[in-house]
Amino acid sequence: MIMRLHRVTLLASLVLFAATLSPPVVAATELSIPPIQYHQRTLPNGLQVLSVEDHASPNVAVQMWYHVGSKNDPQGRSGFAHLFEHLMFKSTRHMHAEQFDRLTEDVGGANNASTGDDVTNYFEIVPSNHLRTLLWAEAERLSSLNVDEKNFKSERAVVEEEYRQSVLAQPYGKLFNAIDPHSYAVHPYQRPTIGSIPDLEAASLQNVIAFHDTFYRPDNATLIVAGDFDPQQLDAWVDAYFGWIPKPATPIPQVTAKEPVRRKDMRYTVTGETAPLPAVAMTWLIPPASDSADRIPLQVAAALLSKGDSSRLYQSLVYRHQVAQDIGADADARVGPGLFTVYAILASGHQPAEAEKLLSEEIIWLATQPIPDAELDKVKTQLLTSELKQRQTAQGIAFALGQASLIDGNVEHVNGDLLALQQVSAKDVHRVLQKYVTGAKKVTIDYLPQAKAAPATATGAAK
Predict the structure, then answer these.
(1) Class for domain 265-461, per CATH?
(2) How far is C-alpha 406 from the geometric centre of its chain's CA atoms?
């Protein structure tokens, strides 16, 4: 014990001596970022079109964002939006199945798609002289998709195998897949995007046809084009290929569920057959992404906690106390109520309660104690650099436009959020953590290897 005190005293003396030799830390200056110059218009049938002309490279990104995600899955049919994402790559009236690969990969480009809680997006990057073909193809699968029994069953089998690989086979897949179901009481966000095998097996071809008719329509879609193109020519092609598609007379169903304020802490136990070690996760409800005044400081708070080996959770749980081998924090903002999540995957010989205590201590410390300017500036610079790096490509610019328009609620966020990020203060971080995390009720999930676990339980503890 005496030796430890001597070492601490010596270290403090060296730090003070170094401070006398080092120049003072200068606060980061605000970076002037040229705004993305986007063009926005809406066709008579309701299709929103966003475009950014950029001749930095002879490529063009084409993206179709549909305003439908797993929150819109039919009751008892979780995973339906994700299933339909796969079906959109099957045949149409004038295209063979998987022809998108031929139209993109065979000319040196690429294509893919993803399904989230609120949106489903389809994205391609091709040499710019293939823009016209891609616009025709996107309009073709919007208006003339072949939904038949063969395509339905083959893609359902593919999605079920994805579930087995990404959830059941992954050591901590069941933990992350359990976060949404246990974190929401009534909102359809409680349905995991990937779904479940029983729900997928219960789906029918008629369900698929009804889903397409309900949500895949021009007034529920946003077309984004970024890169090397002529604006007048783009408008003409968009009008020709998309303008004729009729707008259905029926209204688009909207999610109206209101997630209630949590009145008590909740704890769940989840078991994993493939998990070698325990883990723990905690979640708190946060406001919709449109609330940028709180969303951006929450994202900074999550980065302070978990971004890199110098982050607070890594230094505490992995380095100093050595109770965890991996940690994470995320401010997952959505169109509706989002989640602030922290987790720890434990090191050998440690239990969830140890990690939960340290996670809570670090969050409370961040929410209440002074945050060094250098630490805050470093994290904001990391986040800003990551965003600017994404925007170096046409595909990245298109993704930024889609995120701002469909998730964050206003396309102008694509420019305004970068300025807001630079202006986040320690006071802002304290405010949002005290409002949504330390001052609110949490859900805790203990994840245990099945051989060591007690039977799954759910308990509420009033606080």
Answers:
(1) alpha beta
(2) 13
> Where exactly does CATH 3.30.830.10 map onto the chain?
39-242, 265-461
Quote the tokens at residue 246: 């009729």
Is 167 in contact with 194 (CB distance < 8 Å)?
yes
Q: Output the six-digit token pair for 187.
A: 């909102």
Structure tokens at 14: 């060296």
> How far is the C-alpha of 116 from the C-alpha of 88, rounded, in Å?
15
Q: Which two tokens stand for residue 293?
A: 């005044």
pLDDT tens digit sequence for 157-207: 999 999 999 999 999 999 999 999 999 999 999 999 998 899 999 888 888
| SS3 call for 278 | coil
Dihedral sign computed on CA atoms, order 97, 111, 161, 180: negative
Q: In degrees rounded to 5, what are phi and psi of residue 263? A: -100, -15
Please determine, looking at this structure, whether the domain spanning 39-242 carries the CATH number 3.30.830.10: yes
Residue 22 has pLDDT above 50, yes or no: no
Mean pLDDT over all residues of the chain? 90
> Residues 238, 39: contact at Cβ < 8 Å?
no
* Statement: residue 26 has pLDDT above 80: no
Encode burial over 314-327: b for 16+ CB neighbours within 10 A, e otherwise. bebbbeeeebbebb
What one-character DSSP code corresponds to residue 29? P
pTM attached to this predicted model = 0.89
Distance, first Cα to last Cα, the chain: 39
